[in-house]
Amino acid sequence: MTDLSIYIWSLGGVTAVLAFLVAWLLHHKRKVSSAKSLIIDGSNVMHWKSNTPDIQSVVGVIEALTRQGFYPGVVFDANAGYLVAGKYRHHGDLARMLGLPEQRVMVVPKGTPADPIILQAARDMGARIVTNDRFRDWIEDYPEIQDDGYLIRGGYQSEQVYFSQALKDGVR
């Protein structure tokens, strides 16, 4: 675990989430334009293949997006590790499973809903969100989720990732 990660997790709860988010945003903004930034709702996408939690579903989506020149980050609910590995897994563990650097993966603390973290990160980064969630409970606070193309829906068909809309160069 990096010194930054230790510091962030020592803060506890929502403060830790916000500190992690700020650190991720600062690191991320230096490297990538917002047009290439995507936030993957990892806890949603892990169900895309067979409606059962599967980390490989997220890996496939990351690979498809990366091939198209996107720079995805992934946010998971606290229970994601239990669902895919039978025990708690922090962001470092899930990052290794996904083949991503730790700073591009976040597991929200237990008791903290991931939805507002995902929505705020996307807003702050000027990013879109890859999910099949419609975030209906959050429309008042995040009206941009109603904008065409803000939420990128998708799934798997014949073991291939598809997206509900063209992303780049007409790719679906």
Give a summary of the structure in a few sentences.
The chain is an alpha/beta fold and 172 residues long. The chain is built from seven helices and seven strands; from the N terminus they run ααβααβααβαββββ.
Description of the molecule:
By secondary structure, this protein is of the alpha/beta class. The strands form two sheets. The protein has a five-stranded parallel beta sheet with strand order 3-2-1-4-5, sandwiched between helices. A two-stranded antiparallel ribbon has the order 6-7. β6 and β7 form a beta hairpin. α1 runs antiparallel to α2 and α2 runs parallel beside α7. The longest helix has 17 residues.
Oligomer: single chain
How many helices? The count is 7
Largest sheet report:
5 strands, parallel
Q: What structural class results from the helix and strand content?
A: alpha/beta
The rounded distance between the terminal residues' Cα atoms is 36 Å
Write down how many β-strands occur, each being a DSSP E stretch of 2 or more residues.
7
Uncertain runs = 1-11
CA-atom Rg in angstroms: 15 Å
Strand order of the largest sheet: 3-2-1-4-5
What's the overall geometry?
globular
Order of helices and strands: HHEHHEHHEHEEEE
